[in-house]
Specification:
homodimer; 7 helices; globular; DNA-binding
Chain lengths: ~230, ~230
DNA sequence: CGTGCGTTTGAGTGAATTCAACGGCTGTGG
DNA sequence: CCACAGCCGTTGAATTCACTCAAACGCACG
């Protein structure tokens, strides 16, 4: 059941280092300058739960999902990471979740030890590192409110607004992930995601010119669904 | 609706500093040595969402809930903190959630700035601070799996096992929180929590000698419900 | 022009919710 | 000491929202 999910490690394609300066946050800069680039195919596993955490990762292009699995195949995606984001840095030992490529993507990789050595040299970096973890924690808390207390419409509204903010700025979003990914992120089924999107379209809040392309027509209406007393 | 929840700040009772050494984790020690003690009554607000984050808190006795609210009163508790736990430390500016006393409790309080100054003096403390945030993040991720993908029975099983581990070690748990708190933590209603507990009792997995006292009769059975591929 | 995958749509079901009533414990005041 | 009020928790009945099962659609690719 759902076995396609565990196709697991598709091929890993090394490629020439990227000197991305899309995002100039110092943490990402460290990766861009010191790290090396790798390519991952769609659905490739970047690291697995319980695996020793040896590297830090930064996204040059594409998107990554962080997930936890149950033994019967149920999956919860706890976050999507997009270009400029850093992930996989554990304080100790092992990863507590797995990371997979949502689509083909280019990832910057740096040894954890090298990254931490750099942080030790630069106090402000250590502080930013902590700040970084805390911002993830804040996101996680907002997401718990969504998962525990919001209706399907509210979940989709929150999701679309978040995605718009993170990867478009304009009213149109090009989603990097499948409906199944969205469902597993929002704690819904693929059918409910699909139905709810068409519902939002019928209500005039969005239009869906292509399944992965969504235009926000009424941000205000979406924000009302989102509630957004949460940060 | 649900207005009792917002009784808000019940009286705050200052009390003589506690030199607790229940838990000797260095972070908590800093609070025990440098901080001052305060008492909070049941349901008192310790700090509110969006309030400037000026202090760090440690629990000497009692329990605290961390929550987010929606404008219509829906509430999600993202964590419970128990004796020995530290909370309220933000990397920057403002709290992204509120904290309330679950029952009467004694809290150690220290100025954020004093705490961070100490951390700056002691490298290992800064590292532990980061480690601390990461362990919260790990918990949050497991909880997202619970909220997004688990059935009511599975949620209660996870909850009970977690509580047993954190506050009893033996098979009997004395719950510090109400059914409403449990419901808001697990993303359920109070009725579902109640029904599911009696169901678990009928199945012989637990016994409930008093509403706040629960005995785990079959940990193995509970673990199976819990699934617990999650850390 | 089929084949395969991702998505949409439909019909029926079900787990948890809502609405409602009852039971039990605690503390207060007569 | 008992009566009563106020909570908190449990139980019951009916509803609902999202889920499951199933089928069809559409696009991309060989």
């Amino acid at each position: 059941m759902l076995s396609w999910r565990s196709e697991g490690s598709a091929r890993v394609i090394p490629f020439e280092p990227v000197r991305s300066n899309l995002k100039s946050q110092p943490l990402f800069e460290v990766l861009a300058v010191m790290g090396s680039g790798m390519g991952f195919e769609r659905n490739a596993e970047i690291f697995a739960e319980d695996e020793p955490a040896e590297y830090v990762y930064g996204i040059a292009s594409g998107a990554v999902r962080i997930c936890k699995l149950m033994s019967d195949g149920r999956r919860q995606i706890s976050a999507f990471y997009l270009p400029g984001d850093i992930f996989g840095l554990e304080a100790a030992g092992h990863h507590s979740f797995s990371a997979e490529a949502v689509g083909d993507c280019r990832i910057l990789v740096l040894k954890r030890t090298a990254f931490l050595a750099q942080a030790a040299r630069d106090d402000s970096l250590m502080a930013q590192l902590w700040e970084h973890s805390m911002s993830h924690l804040r996101r996680a808390q907002s997401h718990m409110l969504l998962l525990g207390r919001k209706s399907a419409q509210e979940r989709l509204a929150s999701f679309l607004l978040d995605m718009a903010e993170r990867l478009s700025k304009s009213g149109a979003i090009e989603l990097p992930m499948s409906r199944q990914d969205i469902a597993d992120y929002l704690g819904l089924t693929i059918e409910t995601v699909s139905r709810t999107l068409t519902l939002l379209e019928r209500e005039g809040l969005i239009t869906i010119p292509a399944s992965r392309r969504i235009v926000l027509r009424d941000r205000h209406g979406l924000s009302e669904l989102d509630d957004c007393l949460a940060a």
